[in-house]
Structures are given as structure tokens and as C-alpha cells.
Design goal:
The chain has 271 residues and is of the alpha/beta class. It contains 8 helices and 9 strands. Helix 5 packs across helix 6 and helix 7 packs antiparallel against helix 8. The protein is globular.
């Protein structure tokens, strides 16, 4: 008899990063490094490296739905995680499939809008579909400050504004919100977790590195793995942040631009 316990299953619905630092590739690495089993529904192919996103090839919504369906009908999932969804048609396909096949599965939504190199990854007209159709289905959303500013339509430039924004986003769609503060300057990075009327502030010293590509994908995937493994939300967020912090600290330069974090720091070298 196999004595090993089945790993927690995370279905990742996101775009592919040919440079390996973000998107599906970062998600698979993070889930695996934390002991989960990663499955994928690829929403777009990107030709990118540490300097630029050179091109994007969208995947037809019907095929995204098929990828999700065949995985959910056979393997199942303990948590869902979305990243780059590109346009309103993709968002609708993902939302409809979740409603049909996984309505009660925990769901981490990373509202990916712009790449680290500045490329637009979500069409402007799709923001409404994301906000009104998919976000209300999530367990937690993980916007950075620029993404939260798009969702709310205003600037977020102080600690007080961050807390107000997290509260408003949480109340608007009745979801938990981890508002990430890494885009603000300063020696300390502060993230705000809002759930209903509760606020919790996480902070740590800023890690000075250029290896920041895929940090948002990595954190969301790490949180999804924790939820899939049965961790309470706050513990999943805390462990995910600690995993990412060490991944930033141990990153080595790869490429000429913003390189990837060290996803594999939890894995011992094979003898």
C-alpha cells in the first residue's frame, strides 16, 4: 500500500511566461516547493524575458474552459488560482466553469493587469468584467497598489489610504483582500489583509534586489497552496509572505532586467 498522502491540488488558470519567472511557470514552482500538486489551464502564451513582453498569443476561451473541465472532472482541486485572464471573454469562460464545476472550492484571484516591465496584460474593457463577474466569486484577491487603484478608480498613496482601500474592496464584493504595498517606497513593505471589519497589517524590511519578476504570481500561488492544504486564511497569507521573502533574499541575478525569485529555496539539492 502506498503510504504517501495525496498532495493538495491547486488548479492554476493563468498565462504562460516563456522566461520562467512569472505566470504559470512561477505558480507551478511555488506550489511544488510548498508541497502541493499543480495543475494548469493556460489562458495565453507570452513571449517574454526579464526585459520585455514581446508578444502575447491569447488562448480561445472555449479551450480554456476545456482545460479546466477535464482537470476538474478527473483530478479535482482543493484550491483554484487565477492570474492573467486578458479579456472579458476569458473572464466569462472562467467564471462560468467555476460556477458549474467548482463553486465551493477556495479561490485565490490575482488581478494581473500589468507586467513588471510595464506591458498591459488585461484589456481595459475587461476590468469591469473582472470586478463585477469574477472577483465576487473569490475567497481572497491579491491586488498590488496599481491594480487596486484601477479597481477603485483613485490613487492610494498613504498607509491610511491603503487601509481604506482594502476595506472598500473587501466590502464591495464580500471577499478577503490582501492589498500589497511593495510598490510604495520606503525601507519597510506593508501589506494589508482585510476581511469584513477586520484589518491585519503585515510588514517586513524591504529586500533590495532586482529579482522581482513574478512576485505577485508567486505569492498568490503560495497562498493558494496553503488554503488547499487546509490552512486558515491568515496562516496561508503569513506563510506565503514568508516563502516569498526568502525567495527574494536568496534570488541570484538571471537576465539583464528584473529576474525571477528563488522559488526552489525549500527544496534540498538531490545528492
Amino acid at each position: 500500500m502506498n503510504e504517501f498522502k495525496r498532495p493538495a491540488r491547486v488548479l492554476i488558470i493563468a498565462g504562460s511566461d516563456s522566461g520562467g519567472g512569472a505566470g504559470i511557470q512561477a505558480d507551478i514552482k511555488a506550489v511544488t516547493a510548498l508541497g502541493g500538486f499543480a495543475m494548469t489551464a493556460i489562458t495565453a502564451l507570452t513571449a517574454q524575458n526579464t526585459l520585455e513582453v514581446r508578444d502575447v498569443l491569447p488562448v480561445p476561451p472555449v479551450f480554456i474552459e476545456t482545460q479546466m473541465r477535464v482537470v476538474l472532472e478527473d483530478i479535482g482541486a482543493d484550491c483554484l488560482k487565477t492570474g492573467m485572464l486578458h479579456d472579458a471573454g476569458v473572464i466569462e469562460a472562467v467564471a462560468s466553469t467555476i460556477e458549474t464545476l467548482a463553486p465551493d472550492v477556495p479561490f485565490v484571484l490575482d488581478p494581473v493587469m500589468v507586467s513588471e516591465t510595464g506591458a498591459r496584460l488585461l484589456e481595459a474593457e475587461a476590468v469591469f468584467a473582472l470586478r463585477e463577474r469574477l472577483i465576487p466569486m473569490a475567497t481572497i484577491i491579491t491586488p498590488n497598489l496599481p491594480e487596486a487603484e484601477v479597481l477603485l478608480g483613485r490613487a492610494i498613496d498613504t498607509d491610511t489610504a491603503m487601509m481604506d482601500a482594502a476595506r472598500e474592496l473587501a466590502a464591495r464584493s464580500d471577499v478577503a483582500v490582501l492589498l500589497k504595498g511593495g510598490h510604495r517606497r520606503g525601507a519597510t513593505v506593508r501589506d494589508v489583509l482585510a476581511r469584513g471589519d477586520e484589518l491585519q497589517v503585515f510588514e517586513h524590511p524591504r529586500v533590495e534586489t532586482r529579482s522581482t519578476h513574478g512576485t505577485g504570481c508567486t505569492l498568490a500561488a503560495a497562498i493558494a497552496t496553503g488554503l488547499a492544504q487546509g490552512l486558515p486564511l491568515t496562516q496561508a497569507v503569513d506563510r506565503g509572505r514568508r516563502y516569498l521573502r526568502i525567495a527574494l533574499e536568496q534570488a541570484v541575478p538571471i537576465g539583464a532586467g528584473h529576474g525571477p525569485v528563488c522559488h526552489g529555496h525549500t527544496v534540498q539539492p538531490f545528492p
